[in-house]
Design brief:
The chain is α/β, with parallel strands linked by helices. The protein has a single domain, classed as 3-Layer(aba) Sandwich (Glycerol-3-phosphate (1)-acyltransferase). The chain is built from 9 helices and 7 strands; from the N terminus they run αββαβαβαβαβαβααα. The protein has helices at about 1-25, 55-60, 75-85, 100-110, 135-140, 155, 180-185, 190-210, 220-229, and strands at about 30, 40-45, 65-70, 90, 115, 145-150, 170-175. Strands 1-7-6-2-5-3-4 form a 7-stranded mixed beta sheet. α3 (about 75-85) links the parallel β3 and β4 (about 90). α4 (about 100-110) packs across α5 (about 135-140). The longest helix is centred in the first third of the chain and has 22 residues, at about 1-25. The chain is globular and about 50 Å long. The termini are far apart.
Length: about 230
């Protein structure tokens, strides 16, 4: 109990420090905070543009989130200890890590908030890739509400082919919640298509607000949605 309280306190201290040291220089602006449920299990599913996405997306939100990161990042003992201390869970990349998935489901059942990047890796062109259907499992098994989230501008600041980031303006959006019951009704495949479409629409709205050229998806997700619903 005391250990959990200490970890929670440290998380929020680290969160505030990140908000000051990272979010302020990048002029991070968050839309849709009212779409984040105040209680109950929460699964935030976001696009993935840069290494700094967990800071851009959650440092300005007063909730404690759990994150997943590839297990190779934990090989360095010091960095691994830091990641563990701020609620980052290692996961084996490129294979089905059922032990970690069960751990995440158990945390959600306890009413925790989890942020995942279902694309699996950082975007190579700024666009949102088609999401894999397996992510619906977490909501179905835990009863967690899903909130779609989009980070935009991070790709321009730190694309995966650059070693070091540059400053710029970051916008974040939290979309309307999707209940676990709705996820079950849709089924895994239809939910993945629906979520892909919604994230791309949210991204287009963010890029328009920021005077950035929206990406052209040519109706890909809409066509797929008609096929599975």
């Amino acid at each position: 109990m005391i250990r959990e309280w200490v970890l929670r306190l440290w998380y929020h201290i680290a969160r505030v420090m990140c908000a000051i040291l990272v979010c302020l220089p990048y002029r991070v602006r968050v839309y849709g905070r009212n779409n984040i449920p105040k209680t109950g299990p929460l699964l935030v599913l976001s696009n993935h543009q840069s290494y700094l996405d967990p800071i851009f997306g959650q440092a300005m939100i007063g909730k404690m989130f759990l994150f997943l990161a590839r297990d190779t990042l934990f090989k360095n003992r010091f960095f691994g200890a830091v990641l563990h201390s701020i609620s980052v869970i290692p996961i084996k990349r490129g294979q089905s890590d059922m032990a970690t998935i069960k751990k995440v489901i158990n945390q959600l059942k306890r009413g925790r908030s989890v942020c995942l990047y279902p694309e699996g890796t950082r975007t190579s062109d700024g666009k949102i890739a088609d999401l894999k259907p397996g992510v619906a499992l977490l909501s179905r098994k835990s009863g967690a509400t899903v909130v779609p989230s989009v980070i935009d501008g991070a790709f321009e600041c730190w694309p995966r082919h650059k070693k070091f980031p540059s400053l710029g303006k970051i916008t974040v959006s939290y979309g309307e919640p999707i209940t676990s019951e709705r996820v079950k009704e849709l089924g895994d495949q239809a939910f993945a298509v629906l979520l892909t479409e919604r994230l791309r629409k949210m991204q287009t709205e963010l890029r328009t607000k920021s005077a950035r050229q929206p990406f052209d998806y040519s109706g890909q997700a809409q066509k797929k949605l008609k096929e599975v619903v």
